[in-house]
Amino acid sequence: MQNARYIAAGLSDSDMLWLLSVGKLRRLKAGERLVTAGKSVADLFFVTSGQLGVVLEDGSRVAQLHTGDVVGEMSFVERHSPLVSVIAEEPTEMLAIPRKLILDRFEQEPVFAARFYRALAVFLSERLRETTAAVKAAAEEEQRKLKADKAARARFTRLFVRSGP
Ligand SMILES: Nc1ncnc2c1ncn2[C@@H]1O[C@@H]2COP(=O)(O)O[C@H]2[C@H]1O
């Protein structure tokens, strides 16, 4: 499912032009790794096409990222190494912007910092909302399976009791 997260919505036209002017286009083939768990991330990535998987060390996928998503914002905000890896699932393109350039611009233009952090906050809030919806859907599916299982056992028990001696 494509998501509706677009950090660009919170930025001005001049912010976007600046990001475009300093960003470098990066292309990944399917299977190529953008982020490795435990290794620091020096850039912020704006996905412009394609699809990436966010995966745990055991290979299980916890999320998918698409056009309009940002990658590396957790390292940007927290300065901790990532706990997950991010791997392209199809040919993917993105704009890579070195964190240092963004921090320098914050110094030169504090209003840009305010807009940027607000846009990131909205983006992260939307991502959390989606995660909550996914957890809720998984819990409901689990409940549905448990109920179906219970009903099947009850039917079996009735059958067994009826056909007993
Ligand atoms: N649960 C998640 N849902 C969506 N994206 C995630 C999730 N966890 C990590 N990421 C992305 O994967 C990136 C890994 O590097 P960062 O921690 O810097 O930033 C992280 C986010 O951009």
From TrEMBL:
SMART domains: cNMP (SM00100). Gene3D superfamilies: Jelly Rolls. It comes from Rhizorhabdus dicambivorans. PANTHER family: CRP FAMILY TRANSCRIPTIONAL REGULATORY PROTEIN (PTHR24567), NUCLEOSIDE-RESPONSIVE TRANSCRIPTIONAL ACTIVATOR OF NUCLEOSIDE UTILIZATION DEOR (PTHR24567:SF77). GO terms for cellular component: cytosol. GO terms for molecular function: DNA-binding transcription factor activity. InterPro entries: cNMP-bd_dom (IPR000595), cNMP-bd_dom_sf (IPR018490), Env_Response_Regulators (IPR050397), RmlC-like_jellyroll (IPR014710). This is Cyclic nucleotide-binding protein. It holds the Pfam family cNMP_binding. Residues 7-100 form the Cyclic nucleotide-binding domain. PROSITE patterns: CNMP_BINDING_3.
